């Protein structure tokens, strides 16, 4: 499968500044077609959604196109796509609604591997309801979250299990379908944080077994906001607080206020941009083109990761904490006798952006023995190339020399 990274890079105006970006897990750079879609949406008549005037029709079209694009991206139904300010906000919203039916003795399972956005909303909701929180532990030596580590915690009082699709700190990808089978067998709901996963893998929420799946388009070339995907019939059973005159239709009942139509337009463009990165025929549907694109992206990122991993193995004083068999192209590094934050600042002076910290994955960082400081995170994105890798390695060698 061919993948021309130079052609891809040419579509990102921000890369002209010369920085080698390894900060994709915190948010990717934005390609020109996404920027253009944002501007185009605001350049035409735009009004509250409706079916009569041009501005109304334009707004209605942008919303529909957004929901269909995200449904194609995630293998979901358009009627189950919910817009949110962030994935964190959406998770808090769902946790508040679901916990209305929880009570003392009910149980919620969270994992140490997760970003705090898929931990704290559930812990706090459980606390208000008097429910018990059970913790699934990952193996700090391997980075793996075994399916049985989750399964052993399930019982007849389990109401919800929250697990990441991929660790934003060390890249670990748990076996979601296997976990989902156990969760559903116990009669519980399964909430998946897919923020880091969606940037690197062809997602199918039905295959993964996720009842709720959140992601953030700014991690895959889009604007800053969050998306929730769920079955429309499941959303129909939930009653969030809302204004009396606002619609009670799903998914709109979860979207408070007027939607930012220009943001929706840019998100749809981001999905189309990804679809265009594959080698599938132009006549193929968007979903199939996305499948081809993710295969190409995966091959490109895997090749870079192999090059980087082999080179790091020869650099003394570096510990790589990303060790799981199935993981994203994301490495967490620490340095013998040196602070990761110093490495970040050293690299920054040579135009290499590899940030340091725990990146809101506090439980994971602490479980790894790194406290709240974490390490240096090197995240590969579809626009990274071998020159970026060489600059990073040269910088790290100089830092440790």
How many DSSP E strands?
13
**What is the end-to-end distance?**
39 Å
Which whole number gives the mean pLDDT?
A: 97
Q: Could you say which structural class the secondary elements and strand pairing correspond to?
A: alpha/beta
In angstroms, what is the radius of gyration? 21 Å
List unreliable stretches of 5+ residues. Answer: none
Strand order of the largest sheet: 2-8-7-6-5-3-4
Q: What fraction of the residues are assigned to beta strands by DSSP?
A: 5-15%
Main β-sheet: number of strands, strand sense, barrel status? 7 strands, mixed
Helical percent range?
25-40%
Order of helical and strand elements: HEHHEHEHEHEHEHEEHHHEEHEEHEH
Task: Categorize the overall geometry.
Answer: globular
Count, helices: 14
Summarize the helices and strands and which ones pair or pack.
Blueprint (H helix, E strand, L loop, with lengths): L4 H5 L10 E2 L10 H12 L10 H21 L6 E4 L2 H12 L8 E5 L8 H10 L2 E5 L10 H5 L6 E7 L11 H10 L3 E5 L11 H4 L3 E4 L10 E5 L1 H4 L25 H15 L10 H28 L4 E3 L9 E6 L4 H10 L2 E2 L2 E2 L4 H6 L7 E5 L6 H15 L1
Parallel strand pairs: 1-11, 3-4, 3-5, 5-6, 6-7
Antiparallel strand pairs: 2-8, 7-8, 9-10, 10-13, 12-13
Helix pairs in contact: 2-10, 3-10, 10-11
